[in-house]
Automatic annotation (TrEMBL):
The lineage of its organism: Bacteria, Bacillati, Bacillota, Bacilli, Bacillales. GO terms for biological process: bacterial-type flagellum-dependent swarming motility; positive chemotaxis. Belongs to the FliM family. InterPro entries: CheC-like_sf (IPR028976), Flag_FliM (IPR001689), FliN-like_C (IPR001543), SpoA-like_sf (IPR036429). This is Flagellar motor switch protein FliM. GO terms for cellular component: bacterial-type flagellum basal body; plasma membrane. The gene is fliM. Residues 252-323 form the Flagellar motor switch protein FliN-like C-terminal domain. It comes from the Bacteria.
Amino acid sequence: MVDVLSQNEIDALLAALSSGEMDAEELKKEESQRKIRSYDFKRAVRFSKDHIRSLTRIHENFARFLTTYFSAQLRTFVQINVVQVEQLPYDEFIRSIPKMTILNIFEAEPLEGRMVLEVHPNVAFAMVDRLLGGAGTAPSKIGALTEIETMIMEKIFSRAFESLQEAWKTVIDISPRLDSLETNPQFMQIVSPNETIALISLSTKIGDTTGMINLCIPHVVIEPIMPRLSVHHWFVSQKKSRVPEEVEMLEQRVHKAKLPIIAELGESSITVSEFMSLAVGDVISLNKSAGEGLHIKVGEKLKFIGSPGSVRDRLAVQVEEIVREGAEEDYDE
């Protein structure tokens, strides 16, 4: 990133050049020298900034869906937010998580490969405690999972993948399915140690208990859909045309919509005293002659000109002329 100088630094630089303390030619030589940037082949950059922004946007929605889901299941205050989205080697991710943690290994067809949803033990055991009728606090000492705890966690996290499916729907329709639940990271080898992964870190708060939920997505898993994570794809996908079935259904609903139609005989203005003194048999003069056409309005818009009549002993109006766009003003005059 290019450093931006403050105004004081600019003034000091100009003063040094004018006094001769710095040589402008030397500055030009330094600028023209070839800049070398170190590159670590063990930390290959596979995700561009554009990809990271798209993953952040997707999983911010995922965090909102998870908040709603866990709040309903646990019946307590739950807050989940995206802390950061970064890329790093898979081996570094394994070494950064606790030795005893909850690892939900899952697949998401049609993507090939496995991903991991790592849940900190404090968060996982707080959920179990809450579901079993407790206050939602994590135990001071965490040991091996019992069969009951394993079944509860598998059930609650399996349904949590529905939120992931909903969040990814704007990019691809996936069907996440829990493959297995592990507690020891050393026994989990879903990709090679040097494989680049996208790590989405979610800060989680359940009542007074806090912890992290980490989503590990190997690059090799989402590599086939990487072009869909670009900004260009997001804008193009918003312009998708409607399928014929949707257009037909929309037309049917429009045809069934009811509209108010008003046929105006004419208008007149009288004073309040004249209105109060009206009696049976009085005549009110309108602003139109008897042979002049009636204005037929649909809603507030003048659409037709017609003439009054009757059909089967009912008052009716016969449409004689269609008012085109732009001609309404001429009729109003």
